[in-house]
């Protein structure tokens, strides 16, 4: 039997386009050809299950990829369903080809290759991206003649009698000059691992040019048992009830090459109204400022599609590591289509809901563990709240705040605790070092404040205020709470005025307010309070790249403690001008220092003053 045929009337332009197109990721052919081979095996298995065939020859089911660098070929062999002559003509030359033609007509004008999510649809013909000639050797499970198909990338193909004696198909690619890199056993193996690591049939990669090392004299050599490059039954395809913690952890480290244990995970398993399986892992952060580089691998029926597709997976989840396998997502469509697709939105809503449910259940059932994980997961949860309204609504009562006593609290519990001293006000620490003096004052007075010192927190604070209407977040140095002041202490206004005038004349800072307060603490003579609003405004302007250098400093108030001897002496004693100047500057600098770093100039003056003070001590 030998026969020639024309591929299609419009085919002249197809091959050059296939060859050029998707040049950047032409390794896709690996996925297309191997997934066809797996499909052929699954189809045959199905026939066996249905009792349609009793052919048990040629087992076990497997796909073999043989690379022969010397001959320049890659052969993908399967022992699946095979094809008859009619099927080759129908599926390969008519349907598949018209599929490829349709596909290219549709997308060749779109220069943006990312337009098509998974590039599904190019199918068998993607092999012509890397091969000049492609051959098919196939024998159908229905028996009959083995078929050989051959096409050299022109407009015709040849059909003749094939050589296969067992059921299945060999696809032989004669790799072209420009694609020789794929003939390397290691390159090809790693591409197969990338695209086919969870395909449902064992896949073996064989180096045809590798010679077995001869056994040494007197040595009996054990034959090497080949191992598949893939995991045909990945953990996420199993039922959650069948998986152990150890298996989840092992799957994590193998899949993500991360040898740190994940904090916890969510096994997704949905059949209706869409199919979705997967596992999402929460990785552990090594320090509080680290942002993990997450990775969500998207699969379609165990065939790898791509990493981190934000059109399908809510963006904030990309901070996690995980696998999502959803056969229902339409992948041969543009990204902008996916973005606006209601069905895809439902999938992403489902995943978001599952994540929130898991976190809430941890809070309710394993609070201790949830608290232990909080520092690692908090940037993720907060980012999620900023990005997804629904997630924020669900999580609102389960967001933890770390207090200055190193305990964890919810917003509700915090507000309940402070309702007598600072109702609806949350004092927070944004910088542990710079605000240490305020923290110790709070602690001395039994007051509570929370740490919000992650870069994400400034945005999160505004969001939390929006969600919790009456609540105000105040940085710990922005206000003097009544709890820090002495009860019912009347301020001597004449003294306050006198000191205000003195500091005004000496410091010459128009914007600086001076206030006398009767603080409980007798160790702090002066402190600086920075207005929350004006500080936030400046921070925001900085964030948007506006020049804040020449702007007036944030509204600040210098608090002088009426109960500190330095202040009373300064107010009451008749001091010479130089001493007054020295003490006022110093009190201001001391207040400033516990709030921010001094400018170079201020630091210079401060050090000089210190020296002078030491000299006066020595000269006493
Ligand atoms: N190894 C194989 N064994 C048996 N049939 C095959 C094999 N490879 C391809 N075929 C047949 O050729 C058809 C066309 O394959 P092609 O890869 O072009 O498209 P597809 O697999 O149907 O869809 P997709 O575009 O998603 O890949 C397949 O549907 C199948 O019937």
UniProtKB/TrEMBL annotation:
Residues 212-236 are annotated as: Disordered. Residues 212-222 have a biased composition (Basic and acidic residues). Keywords: ATP-binding, Chaperone, Nucleotide-binding. The keyword ATP-binding applies. Gene3D superfamilies: 3.30.230.80, 3.40.50.11260, Heat shock protein 90, C-terminal domain, Histidine kinase-like ATPase, C-terminal domain. SUPFAM superfamilies: ATPase domain of HSP90 chaperone/DNA topoisomerase II/histidine kinase (SSF55874), HSP90 C-terminal domain (SSF110942), Ribosomal protein S5 domain 2-like (SSF54211). InterPro entries: HATPase_C_sf, HSP90_C, Hsp90_fam, Hsp90_N, Ribosomal_Su5_D2-typ_SF. ATP binds at residues 32, 36, 78, 83, 98-99, 169, 335. The keyword Nucleotide-binding applies. Belongs to the heat shock protein 90 family. PANTHER family: HEAT SHOCK PROTEIN 90 FAMILY MEMBER. This is Molecular chaperone HtpG. It comes from Holtiella tumoricola.
């Amino acid at each position: 039997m030998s026969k020639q045929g024309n591929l299609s009337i419009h085919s002249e332009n197809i091959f050059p386009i296939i060859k050029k197109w998707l040049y950047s990721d032409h390794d896709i052919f690996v996925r297309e050809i191997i997934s066809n081979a797996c499909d052929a095996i699954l189809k045959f298995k199905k026939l066996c299950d249905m009792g349609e065939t009793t052919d048990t020859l040629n087992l076990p089911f497997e796909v073999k990829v043989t690379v022969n660098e010397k001959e320049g070929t890659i052969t993908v062999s399967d022992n699946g369903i095979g094809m008859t002559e009619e099927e080759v003509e129908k599926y390969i030359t008519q349907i598949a080809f018209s599929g490829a033609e349709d596909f290219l007509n549709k997308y060749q004008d779109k220069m943006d290759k990312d337009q098509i999510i998974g590039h599904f649809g190019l199918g068998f013909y993607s092999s012509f991206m890397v091969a000049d000639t492609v051959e098919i050797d196939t024998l159908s499970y229905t028996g009959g003649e083995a078929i050989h198909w051959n096409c050299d990338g022109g407009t015709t193909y040849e059909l003749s009698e094939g050589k296969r004696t067992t059921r299945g198909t060999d696809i032989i690619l004669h790799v072209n000059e420009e694609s020789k890199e794929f003939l390397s056993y290691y390159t090809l193996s790693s591409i197969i691992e990338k695209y086919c690591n969870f395909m449902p049939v064992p896949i073996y990669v064989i180096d045809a040019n590798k010679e077995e090392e001869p056994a040494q004299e007197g040595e009996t050599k054990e034959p090497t048992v080949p191992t598949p490059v893939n995991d045909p039954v990945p953990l996420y395809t199993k039922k959650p009830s069948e998986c152990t913690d150890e298996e989840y952890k092992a799957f994590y480290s193998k899949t993500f090459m991360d040898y740190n244990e994940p904090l916890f995970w969510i096994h997704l398993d949905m059949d209706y109204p869409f199919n979705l399986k997967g596992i999402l892992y929460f990785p552990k952060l090594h320090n509080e400022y680290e942002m993990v580089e997450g990775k969500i691998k998207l699969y379609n029926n165990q065939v790898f599609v791509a990493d981190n597709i934000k059109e399908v997976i809510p963006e904030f989840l990309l901070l996690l590591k995980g696998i999502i396998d959803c056969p229902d997502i339409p992948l041969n469509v543009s990204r902008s289509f996916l973005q606006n697709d209601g069905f895809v939105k439902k999938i992403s809503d489902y995943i978001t809901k599952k994540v929130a449910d898991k976190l809430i259940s941890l809070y309710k059932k394993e609070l201790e563990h949830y608290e232990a994980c909080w520092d690692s997961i908090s940037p993720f949860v907060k980012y999620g709240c900023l990005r997804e309204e629904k997630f924020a609504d669900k999580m609102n009562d389960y967001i933890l705040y770390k207090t200055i006593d190193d305990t964890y609290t919810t917003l509700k519990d915090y507000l309940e605790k402070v309702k007598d001293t600072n109702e609806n006000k949350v004092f927070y620490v944004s910088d542990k070092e710079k605000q240490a003096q305020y923290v110790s004052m709070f602690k001395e007075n039994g007051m509570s404040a929370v740490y919000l010192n992650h870069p994400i927190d400034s945005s999160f604070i505004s969001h939390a205020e929006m969600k919790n209407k009456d609540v105000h977040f105040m940085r710990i140095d922005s206000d003097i709470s009544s709890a820090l002041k002495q009860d019912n202490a009347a301020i001597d206004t004449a003294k306050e005025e006198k000191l205000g005038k003195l500091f005004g004349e000496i410091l010459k800072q128009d914007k600086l307010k001076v206030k006398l307060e009767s603080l409980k603490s007798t160790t702090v003579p002066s402190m600086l309070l920075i207005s929350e609003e004006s500080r936030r405004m400046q921070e925001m302007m900085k964030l948007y790249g506006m020049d804040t250098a020449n702007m007036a400093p944030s509204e600040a108030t210098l608090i002088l403690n009426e109960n500190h001897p330095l202040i009373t002496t300064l107010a009451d004693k008749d001091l010479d001008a130089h001493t007054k100047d020295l003490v006022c500057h110093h009190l201001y600098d001391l207040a400033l220092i516990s709030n921010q770093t001094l400018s170079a100039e201020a630091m210079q003056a401060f050090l000089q003053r210190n020296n002078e003070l030491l000299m006066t001590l020595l000269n006493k």
